[in-house]
Amino acid sequence: MISIVNISRGGAAAFHCEKPMNALxxxxxxxxxxxxAAGSRVHLVTVVRTWGSAPRxxxxxLALREDGRMxxxxxxxxxxxxxxCRAREGTLEDAPARLTYGVTRDEAAxxxxxxxxxxxxxxxxxxxxxxxxxxxxxxxGHRLIQRTVDLQDGSSSVSAAGPADGPDFDGRVFRSVYxxxxxxxxxxxxxxxxxxxxxxATLDFHVTVCDPREEFHGDWSLSRTTLITSMPxxxxxxxxxxxxxxxxxxxxxxxxxxxxxxxxxxxxxxxxGALGSRANQQKRRERLRLFxxxxxxxxxxxxxRWACASPARxxxxxxxxxxxx
Length: 325
Hints:
By secondary structure, the chain is an alpha/beta fold. The protein has 2 domains: 24-178, no CATH class; 182-321, NAD(P)-binding Rossmann-like Domain (Rossmann fold). It is 28% helix and 27% strand. The chain has helices at 24-37, 78-89, 105-110, 130-140, 191-202, 214-217, 232-238, 254-264, 278-288, 295-298; strands at residues 3-5, 42-51, 61-65, 70-72, 97-101, 118-126, 145-150, 156-160, 168-169, 173-178, 183-187, 206-210, 225-228, 245-249, 271-274, 301-302, 305-308, 318-321. The strands form 4 sheets. A 7-stranded parallel beta sheet has the order 1-13-12-11-14-15-16, sandwiched between helices. A 5-stranded antiparallel beta sheet has the order 4-3-2-6-5. Helix 1 (24-37) packs antiparallel against helix 4. Residues 1-22 and 305-325 have low confidence and may be disordered.
């Protein structure tokens, strides 16, 4: 579903998205929270370590109810079937516990793991919603949060996390990190934006498209995106740009692209780019130097461009490539 928002200059932001964060991890945690609140017996199963080929990596989660209903995935196959049987039989531990699959060749074949693949999981019963509520609130507030579980005494705690933090398990203490989805802000509602938005959405980015021009955004109909009609510099500020946000300007209109870049290059966004040729990128950098940006900020600008290959080389007439370092 598309949500259209207008953020006026000088006014309060009215940023809204119908389904702002429906990534798998959030879906798992939300279902787990709702099931526990409804009185169900629920286990949260998390991948903590993998060896060899593994279909899911550390941090992948599965919420499992006592009747076998589940949300999420830890392997994409037979391991889920085994966990469902354990839940229905009531044989999952009442305290945080390790589960390992694929130790032997026969076991790997039984559970459909790739050759040499081994998964170590942590299964923990969810007794209340307190920590789930804290984590879900942080995710919706675009904040990273870390949960630590001690398998020896069953204790757990929640604390703030940084961009470099990730899942970790030392054999006794397991640390999991939860946070907002990766986000992409595209400046411009044109055909290039449509292609880019489709690719990003497929990769589970939360995609926002900004274009104040009615003749461009009037017919925008791409699902899985949020359309906002504010000015680009306002949009960069109002969406709460953070370390999980990428910003790409594709309007080919310096009045709009540069407005966004002036704020984006000062933000915490992990990627800032603009479409244009090598010559246009140089002109853009010269324009940006006229404002309150220093060389280190301008150097953050990535400049993908459309370039024509030499006909003598008999290559496709155009291709998208990044400039040399």
